[in-house]
Write a structure and sequence with these properties.
62 residues; mainly alpha; 21% helix; 0% strand
């Protein structure tokens, strides 16, 4: 298996045409067949903010 490394700085900006195409896609046109469906039971175990770390704020003492 080959590993591909990608840096965000290497990405090219979106073109106006690409942005317009993405904006024009309707929810019904999105293919979700490879994603397993979720149930209300799945969301009962969900934890808000589990993978989000707040930004650190610098503090100065005088």
């Amino acid at each position: 298996m080959t590993t591909v490394h990608f840096k965000l700085s290497d990405a090219k900006p979106w073109t106006a045409e690409e942005l317009q195409r993405i904006k024009s896609i309707r929810d019904g046109d999105i293919d979700y067949s490879d994603i397993p469906p979720t149930t209300p039971e799945d969301w009962k175990k969900a934890v808000r903010g589990k993978f989000c770390k707040p930004a650190k704020k610098s503090a100065t003492r005088k």
